[in-house]
Amino acid sequence: MKQAEPLVREITVGQWGMISTRQASAVGVSRLDLSRLEKAGKLERMSTGIYRQTAAPQSQFDNVRAAWLSTEPETLAWKRYDEPSVIVGSSTAAWLHRIGDLQPEPYEFFSTTRRQSARDDVHFRQRTIASNELRIVEGLPATSVEQTIADLLQDVGDVSLVGAAFRDAATSGREPDRGRMEPMLAGLAKRYGFAPGNGGHVYDMLAVEAGTDPESVFVRYANQVDLQPYIDESVRKFMDEAVRKALAENKEWSEMLQRLGADVPRALSSGKVSRPDAG
After folding, report:
1. CA distance 103 to 232
2. How many CB atoms lie within 10 A of CB 72?
3. Phi then psi for 8, rounded to 5 degrees?
4. Could you tell me if 240 and 246 are in contact, meaning their C-beta atoms sit under 8 angstroms apart?
5. Contact call for residues 20 and 73 (beta carbons, < 8 A)
6. CA distance linking residue 59 with residue 65, whole number of Å
7. Chain centroid to CA 87: how far?
8. DSSP line for 127-156
């Protein structure tokens, strides 16, 4: 067991303190060795064939990491990043991105090949995601924010829930890219009452629901900022122009103010000059 422990540690360092029985076997550590380390309190069983060092920092994402690791248990995590065959998607990806308020379970995985799981908390879908829509999130390959939101609208359908995810992304500096999302949303346009293929209208619908559309942003800004000084200045300029126009049409007033050498708008507004008919 003493010889097994450093071999296990060498593998777990690069994958959240975890190791699979197949990875252990590849370096000469048997299932019996792992069982003994578990009994000694050095390891804990995460799921069938996956162990975790008890001394490793814990994370809320440990269970989904263990589930993903078990999909290709013989391969080290870091070797799967360049061309992952299994990636996290839909509501589980939203959870990793910390957008929306959706439950991550059952864990949603997209696989390039057909897969089935005996676990109730793991769900596979055969699907290939474009490489430019892949991200490493919390150490796992997952769909981008844009792809995740589009998938949520397809899978969940509730505009308010998906709008909340859209808002969380936008307010955390990750506003969904319209140009990339429009093609993703095009197939959903008819479902939501828009012209078939018009992904732009679907995007606008989500932005309005999220309160990130230009009109909502302006209203929110207007409610937070004191606009009265700007309004007062605009009104003053308008009144100045109106007074100048009125004086230009009233020769008697204009000649009188010229004799006094007064600034027209200020003189009238200060009350220092009386109207000609006021005596």
Report:
1. 50
2. 16
3. -65, -45
4. no
5. yes
6. 10
7. 18
8. ----GGGEEEETTEEEE-HHHHHHHHHHHT
Cα 158 to Cα 105: distance, rounded to the nearest angstrom: 18
Contacts of residue 214, Cβ cutoff 8 Å, sequence gap at least 6: none
Cα 64 to Cα 60, 119, 128, 137, distances in angstroms: 9, 12, 20, 12
- Nearest Cα to 186, choosing from 200, 174, 173, 175? 200
Q: pLDDT tens for the chain, 279 residues: list them.
A: 568 999 999 999 989 999 999 999 999 999 999 999 999 999 999 999 999 999 999 999 999 999 999 999 999 999 999 999 999 999 999 999 999 999 999 999 999 999 998 899 999 999 999 999 999 999 999 999 999 999 999 999 899 999 999 999 999 999 999 999 999 999 999 999 999 999 999 999 999 999 888 777 666 666 666 656 766 666 667 666 766 666 666 666 566 656 655 555 555 455 444 444 544
**Closest C-alpha to 206, from 196, 218, 216:** 216
Sequence-separated (6 or more) residues with CB below 8 Å from residue 202: 153, 185, 186, 188, 189, 192, 194
SS3 243: helix
> What is the secondary structure of 72-105 as a DSSP string?
STTS-GGGGSSS-SEEE-HHHHHHHHT-SS---P
First-residue to last-residue Cα distance in the chain: 112
